[in-house]
Amino acid sequence: MRGVVMHAPGDVRVEDLPDPRIEAATDAVIRVSATCVCGSDLWPYRGTDKVDGPARMGHEYAGIVEEVGAEVSTLRPGQFVVGSFWASDNTCELCRAGYQSACVHRVPMGALGSQAQYLRVPLADGTLVATPEVPPADLVPDYLAASDVLGTGWFAAVAAQAGPGRTVAVVGDGAVGLLAVLAAKQLGAERIIAMSRHESRQRLAREFGATDVVTERGDDGIARIKDLTGGLGAHSVIEAVGTQESMTQAIRSARPGGDVGFVGVTHDVSIDGMEMFWSLVRLHGGPAPVRRFLPELMGLIGDRTINPGRVFDLDLPLEEAAEGYAAMDERRAIKTLLRP
Amino acid sequence: MRGVVMHAPGDVRVEDLPDPRIEAATDAVIRVSATCVCGSDLWPYRGTDKVDGPARMGHEYAGIVEEVGAEVSTLRPGQFVVGSFWASDNTCELCRAGYQSACVHRVPMGALGSQAQYLRVPLADGTLVATPEVPPADLVPDYLAASDVLGTGWFAAVAAQAGPGRTVAVVGDGAVGLLAVLAAKQLGAERIIAMSRHESRQRLAREFGATDVVTERGDDGIARIKDLTGGLGAHSVIEAVGTQESMTQAIRSARPGGDVGFVGVTHDVSIDGMEMFWSLVRLHGGPAPVRRFLPELMGLIGDRTINPGRVFDLDLPLEEAAEGYAAMDERRAIKTLLRP
Question: Under CATH, to which class is B151-285 assigned?
Answer without folding.
Answer: alpha beta
